[in-house]
Amino acid sequence: MVRISIPTLPPAPLLPPSALTLLSPTLAASHLAAFLDKGKGKTVILTGAGVSVDSGIRAYRGEKGTYSNPNYKPILYHELVEDSPRGELFRRRYWARSFLGYPPVRDALPNPTHIYIAALQHLGLAPNLITQNVDNLHPKALSLLSSHGAPASTKSRILELHGTLAKVHCLKHRHEQTRDSYQAEISRLNPIWDHEAKEAERTGRRPRTNPDGDVELHGVDYNSFSVPLCRICKAENKEETTIVKPNVVFFGETIPPSVRDESLDLITNSSSLLIVGTSLATYSAFRLVKLASEQGKPVLMISTGPSRADGLKGLEKMDRVAGPILGKYLDEVVKTNSGPDIDAVKKYLHTGVMKRPPEIEGPRAEG
C-alpha cells in the first residue's frame, strides 16, 4: 500500500534576515522595479495560498512552514474515486463537508494583493500568472480591471495549476458543469443539510474552512447525505451515471499533463520568475522554480517564512509580506504613466477586501 502524506517543508536551520528582507519599503519597491524592468514584460508570477489569506481564506502552512492543522485528514484522490461502499462513504464525507465549506470560498473577494497582481498583468508588466490556488480570486481580480478601461494585455494568462473549485466534472465522460449548479442539486437532495448551511450563513457560525473548501466536522453520520451523480449523463441516457469530482487536484492525484506542460512552457518562455505568498511545499510548484533556476533565470521571492526553494541558485528572497511592496511599486508606475489601462488600474489599485481568517493571528501564513 502506498503511503501518501500532505506535503510539508523539510527541517532547515533558521537563517538571519537577508539584506533584501531588511530593505525599507521604498528600497524594496525599487528593487522590484529593477527586477521587472529587466524582465521586459516576460516575467511570470507564481502564487500560493498566502496571497488569499487577507480574503478570509486560511493558508495550509503557518509561519514556520509546518502544516497549520496537522490533525486535518483530507480525502485522498484514490479514496474519492474508489468504486466500493467504502468509496461511497468517502464521497459522502467529502461532498457533505465541501457543501458547507464552498460558500465562503465562492463569496470571497479579491484583496489588495490580488488587485496588485492583476495590475501587473493588466499593464503587461508580468502578463502570465501561475497560481496554486483553487479559490478563483485571481480571475476575479483580473476581470475587475479588464471590465473597466482598456482590456488586459491580450497575452495575459492565468494558469490554475491545481484547478478551480468553480467547476465540477464527471469522471467517465468529463461532462463539466458549474459548481453553483451542482451545489443547487446538493441542496435539493439534502434539505436538512441545506437548512444547516443557511443557518450557519445567517448566524456567521460557519465551521473552520480549509483552502480547498473542505470544513472540519466531528461526530457526524454522513450516511444521511445524498451525493448527486452526473445529471448530464442522466439527461443523455448514458448507461452509467458517473461520479462527480470538483475540478481540483486532490492529494495523491497527478496534475493533468496538459497543465503540467503549459506550466513548464510558461517558465521556459519567460525572462524571470516572481514568487508571491507560497512556501512551495508541493513539488508541482517547486519544480517550476527549480526549472527557472536551472535555466539561469532571475528569481525573486516575496513571501514570509521558510520555503522549499531557500538556498536555490539564483533565487533572491524578501522574507516579508508582498502586498505593500507591490502596492508601493505600482504607485510609482501609475504616477509616471498615463492612458486608459493606467486609469483602470488607478481606479482599483488600493481596493480589495481585508478579511483575515479569525483563526489566524500574528504573522501571516503562507501556502
From TrEMBL:
It is found in: Mitochondrion. Keywords: Mitochondrion, NAD, Transferase, Transit peptide. GO terms for molecular function: histone deacetylase activity, NAD-dependent; NAD+ binding. It comes from the Eukaryota. Residues 22-352 form the Deacetylase sirtuin-type domain. Its main location: mitochondrion. Residues 195-217 are annotated as: Disordered. Transmembrane segments: none annotated. GO terms for cellular component: mitochondrion. Belongs to the sirtuin family. Class I subfamily. This is Deacetylase sirtuin-type domain-containing protein. The lineage of its organism: Eukaryota, Fungi, Dikarya, Basidiomycota, Agaricomycotina.
